[in-house]
Design goal:
With about 600 residues, this protein is an alpha+beta fold. It has 19 helices and twelve strands.
Amino acid sequence: MFYVGALVLSGLAGIGLALLLLLKAAPVPGARLLALFLVGVAAWSGGQALPPLFGPVSDGVVGLLLALAPLPSAVFVHLVLAFVRCGAPGPLVRAAYGLAAAATVLGLLVDPGQVMAWRDFCGVFIPSTAGWVVIAVCGLLSVTGHLRLFKGWLDLTGLRRRQAAAIGCSSLIGLISLTGFAFPPLGIDAYPWPVLGLPLYSVALVYGILRYQLMDVNLWARRMLVWLLLMGLMAAAATLVMALPLASGTPFAGVETWLLMTVMTLIAPAIWKPLRLVADRLVFPGGDVSAADLEKWRVALAAPADWPALLDRASALIGGRLGLPVAVRLKEAEGPVPALILSRDVRGWRCDLVGWQDAPPGPRHAAGLFAGCLAEAAGRLDRAEALARAERERQREARLVELGQLAATVAHDLRNPLNIITMAATGAPPEIRADVAEQVGRMEMLVRDVMDYAGTARLDRRTLSVADAVALALSGLPGLRVETSIDPALSVQADPRRLRQMLVNLLENAAAHGQRLAVLAERVGGAVRIHVCDDGPGVPADIRDRLFQPFVSRRPGGTGLGLAIVARIMEAHGGTVALGDRSGWSTCLTLTFPDDRENRI
């Protein structure tokens, strides 16, 4: 009986697909909800198959399953919100489950209906008034879920929009199939043909959602489509054979029929490959790649100016071509599959296919060709960025050279007048000489700082004891009391003159603000860190982010170049200077030198 067969097949499909989801697609958002909903569909389908098989004796079981039917409907509402994410799921889901629970209690307390004979069936379930109330609640929950689904379809884009459309299409199949159950209670004297489509509902629902997230689903869909095409052709051929004017009633009629069926059986393996190609094109569109396609890809991939834009463009191109989302990542193999992974080795950029081992030849071939175009684009972008960096560095060096030349000229032109001013003030009263000396000193300090900042930071790296370097810097600052905490064995690769210059700059900067000063040093990982701290008022919030830029100072009368010079020297060392926080100190400036121990071995 087709009716019973469709219901049994629907139940088996629901259970099988639920197990598939739990075993293969558990990480997919909403997979467990979908599995629970499929179990509910399977229970309903199996329950409706009992009356035609066993008649009135199945009345109690079918009534129980009808009473429980609102629960899967509430799960459907939850499922829609989980997949589509079109609103806050909390209140609506709680209301759906509450209404479903109330309807279930009603169905359990009041007889929901009975099994009665109908047409050629020994039994079908006819709902009572309470049963119709339970069915109405199921319908209300279904309408609620589909309204939210429609809202999500309008609001969302990309994968979520496609999933919403897939759920809607499968629901249309389910709705048409369910109309067959209304024939007996409504007195429609017709065979319930719509029910025969019920097994397709679960399959369409799962495939529509997981097609874009699980490669295995597409492989199974391809196999199923090949078999369906083959069976359809065989059925058509069998019908054609039966319609042929064979020598009926003669001894050769059976032989002719047998020969024709044998030929069909032999032809089946021969047409398997063409049918598989047809299925590949239907399930995995975009497998054929022409020279024009390659050129189009190259042009499209040449447009992005940075890595995020290139990855997004590549994912959109290959995903749109194959009809499923393809992740494109840079050097990271972990993540969703199928994916294209860009990496660089000694031979240049390459693009590897991850998660494509079970894909059909067509899409895999297309992805491989696209990967070649993407690797070329990555190489071009990498070279473009390298050229841009080199050009920026060249321009920076040129500006520094110009600034150095300008600074040398200014220094020469300023020092002569300053010397004249100093000599001219020798006969002035003491207070005037003091003011002149102070202002001349400030001008000389500014000239020196400009010369230091504009000059090229050429280094003579040596292995230095950090403790000795700090002691040498302090020797040039008499009267300055500084706490130190430095391991005598701690060393660093640095230019001794430049290191002393940085320490003096930082110590003078700290002494201008605090009463207590400290120099602390440590090795963190492989890097050496030297902290110069003070207990002063701290760095104002408005200059914290630009403290190491030129002409930014936190002390009156400062040139604003001292910390900028320190930043330039540390950059030349391959390290950094940063404003940090240490317990007990208001301000700490930290010099971080990179790990150089391997270079010394």
